[in-house]
Amino acid sequence: MHKELLQQLAQAVIDGNKDQAETLTNQLLDAGLEAKAILDNGLMPGMDVVGQRFRDNLIFVPEVLIAARAMKASLAILEPLLAASNAPQVGTVVIGTVKGDIHDIGKNIVIMMLRGAGFRVVDLGIDTPAEKFLQAAREENADIVGMSALLTTTMGYMKTVIERLKAEGLRVKTMVGGAPISPAFAEQIGADGYAKNAAEAVDKAKALLGV
Ligand code: B1M
Q1: Ligand 1 contacts CB of residue 62 (under 6 A)
Q2: What topology does CATH give the domain 92-209?
Q3: Which terminus of the chain has a lower count of CB atoms within 10 Å, N or C?
């Protein structure tokens, strides 16, 4: 039964059917499935199909927007479960999607998982300029500055932020991620850490702080 509902949830994301996505998410939770499994096996496969169709010019921005709205509606239900934590506080992360980039679904999932692992997370939102990262890093006494980018045209901005942090002498670790980012790119721009997905982001953040 789980499998069928998960497939329906993926389809609801693909169709951009927000109401259906919410109903199915609640049904899956009622049926005892864990939030993480709903995310990994329902929402993510749905958004993967959306990405492929978008790339192949089968659908366009408006369809992607309504798919994103459906995914966000489901995530809003899952958030308290993913972010619930009994873990002791392990450190502070300030995180944002870099300047020029408005993709935030992946970043928001990373935030939920970090909170769930006991991190205090300050969300700087989307289209975040270097100044905002710097200011927040100082004011929040951050241990880690996290950056997300989904566009090949915006990923280079991560280097700008890292260079600014270094130039200002801020003693903070940096972590980067997002679909176009690779470990080699992360190394090339001088980031301290890279994570492929939200679960890895938690492991990497802990490793960076030695906890
Ligand atoms: Co856009 N978009 N989009 N888009 N969009 C992509 C990224 C694209 C790959 C689609 C495609 O062509 N197949 C393509 C980029 C191509 C490129 O750069 N070479 C693209 C494009 C071209 C564009 C526009 C330029 C389209 C246009 O206007 N013509 C435009 C740009 C707007 C801008 O930012 N300035 C645009 C707009 C949009 C929407 C607004 C419609 C919408 C975003 C809605 C929103 O986020 N609120 C959207 C969407 C939804 C997508 C796709 C389909 C899905 C992205 C997503 O949410 N994935 C995407 C296709 C794709 O990625 N395959 C695409 C699900 C999410 C859970 O995964 O974000 O990868 P992801 O996050 C993962 C990991 O990457 C990682 O963990 C997350 C969870 O596991 N991660 C981190 C992310 N951040 C991390 C940070 C970390 C660590 C790990 O540490 C700090």
Answers
A1: no
A2: Rossmann fold (3.40.50)
A3: N
